[in-house]
Structures are given as structure tokens and as C-alpha cells.
Specification:
The protein is an alpha+beta fold and 237 residues long. It has three domains: 55 residues, Roll (Structural Genomics Hypothetical 15.5 Kd Protein In mrcA-pckA Intergenic Region, Chain A), CATH 3.10.290.10; 83 residues, Pseudouridine synthase I, catalytic domain, N-terminal subdomain (Alpha-Beta Plaits, 2-Layer Sandwich); 76 residues, Alpha-L RNA-binding motif (Alpha-Beta Plaits, 2-Layer Sandwich), CATH 3.30.70. The chain is built from seven helices and 17 strands. The structure holds uracil. Uracil binds next to helix 6.
Length: 237
């Protein structure tokens, strides 16, 4: 019983900050100003404990809903780094207006790579999707400077030396046209796709991730836009 109480209660100011997107001090002020109702009664103190699973909390008349985990699909634009904090603009900086606390990108895309990035605060999911043991497939649209030969395709599909003593795992190549291919890889080695193409004397001029495991980039999302994963996408994960 004691464990249950510890798991399902939370300080009111923390709850307000995480659900209404306020800072801790703004949340405290809102509570003291009588803008927060708990089960229809004005809250009195920021350090009251509430039960986030059963108490009805509202702020300025709007009912708040607590979600422990959130899951987004971002169409990453070029020019932002896949990190939570950096001197440069990060993918998390694109999430203005959301409660960004704890959000992180699942895996990394290079600064100039665009496309699908899953962003969440669920560490277990992040680990499952990036663990080398799970071999989650990642499909990229790759623009290259010269058409691939049969031998290039065969080397990419078999696995090849990509430098620094590393060998890429077998990949799947689908030819789109002379200057573009889809490449599906199951690892997450640093600059992997660019290094694979360099190893067959080619060069990547554009790289876009179009899927990760069962999640496919929504074609309606423009670069820089994001949306929540749908319940059916979440079920696939
Ligand atoms: N491989 C790369 O070379 N870059 C990326 O951003 C992702 C995969």
C-alpha cells in the first residue's frame, strides 16, 4: 500500500508544471492565485500531494491530463543537431510549447540529414530501438553522385569495410534512379550510410531517413514539423 502511494502521488506544483507547460515558479504562483482546482476545490498549497491517476486537476478552467510518457515523430530539418542540449540548435529546441522535460531523440541523425526522428521521454523504448542487439531497420533515401554498379550493390548488400577497422552489416539496396537509392541498414554506426557509400567510391549528397522499424515518416509532415505517434503506431512499437 505504501509503495502504491509513493508511485501515484506527486506534488501539485510539479504536476502543474509538467501538464500545463509552466515553470515551477509560475506553477506555484498559479496555485497561490487560486487558478488551480483539485477535484473542484481551489488548491491551497504548491506542496500538496495529488494522485495523478484519480484526482481531477484544472488550471484556469481547463482540465489537465497527466501523461508519463510522450511519443513524437519529427521530420528533422537540416541544420539542427540530434542532441538534448548543445551550443547549437538541437532537435529538442523545435518542440516549443510542449513540456520538453526529459524529451530526447531516439538515435542520431547527422546535422545535415533530414527525416524521421522519434522523440520521447521513454528511456526503455529509446533503448529498445537503438540497442545493437535488436537490429532495428532504418531505411534511408540516399542521393549519390554516380550510379551504383552491380558490384557496388553486391558489396553493400554483403557488408564492407567502412574504415576505422569497422565492417558494415549486410544492407538492402533498392535503386530509385541513377542518382538515388533506398538503403536499409540495421546498425547505427557513426556516419554509417555516408561511410558505406564512400567505401564504394561514391558520395552522399542528400540523406533522408524514411522509416525506423515499423514507423514510417508521415509524408504530410514538412521538415521541422512534428506530431504525436498515433495509437496504432504506438502499438507497432
Ligand atoms: N548514416 C549517416 O551517415 N548519417 C546519418 O545521419 C544517418 C545514418
Amino acid at each position: 500500500m505504501w509503495v502504491f502511494l509513493l508511485l501515484s502521488t506527486m506534488r501539485l506544483d510539479k504536476y502543474i508544471c509538467e501538464t500545463a507547460g509552466l515553470s515551477r515558479s509560475e506553477a506555484k504562483k498559479a496555485i497561490k492565485a487560486g487558478l488551480v482546482l483539485v477535484n473542484g476545490m481551489k488548491a491551497v498549497s504548491p506542496d500538496d500531494n495529488i494522485d495523478e491517476t484519480s484526482d481531477e486537476i484544472s488550471y484556469k478552467g481547463t482540465s489537465l491530463k497527466y501523461e508519463q510518457f510522450v511519443y513524437f515523430m519529427l521530420n528533422k530539418p537540416a541544420g539542427v543537431v540530434s542532441a538534448t542540449i548543445d551550443r547549437e540548435k538541437t532537435v529538442i529546441d523545435l518542440f516549443s510549447g510542449e513540456n520538453c522535460k526529459g524529451l530526447f531523440p531516439v538515435g542520431r541523425l547527422d546535422k545535415d540529414t533530414v527525416g524521421l526522428l522519434i522523440v520521447t521521454n521513454d528511456g526503455d523504448l529509446g533503448h529498445r530501438l537503438t540497442s545493437p542487439k535488436k537490429k532495428v531497420s532504418k531505411k534511408y533515401l540516399v542521393k549519390i553522385i554516380t550510379p551504383l554498379s552491380r558490384s557496388d550493390i553486391s558489396r553493400l548488400e554483403t557488408g564492407l569495410n567502412i574504415g576505422n577497422g569497422e565492417v558494415s552489416a549486410p544492407a538492402i539496396v533498392e535503386i530509385v534512379d541513377e542518382s538515388s537509392i533506398y538503403l536499409t541498414v540495421t546498425e547505427g554506426k557513426f556516419h554509417e550510410v555516408k561511410r558505406m557509400l564512400k567505401a564504394v567510391d561514391n558520395e552522399v549528397t542528400y540523406l533522408k531517413r524514411v522509416s525506423m522499424g515499423p514507423i514510417v515518416l508521415d509524408p504530410l509532415l514538412k521538415e521541422g514539423e512534428y506530431r504525436r505517434l498515433t495509437p496504432s503506431e504506438l502499438e507497432l512499437l
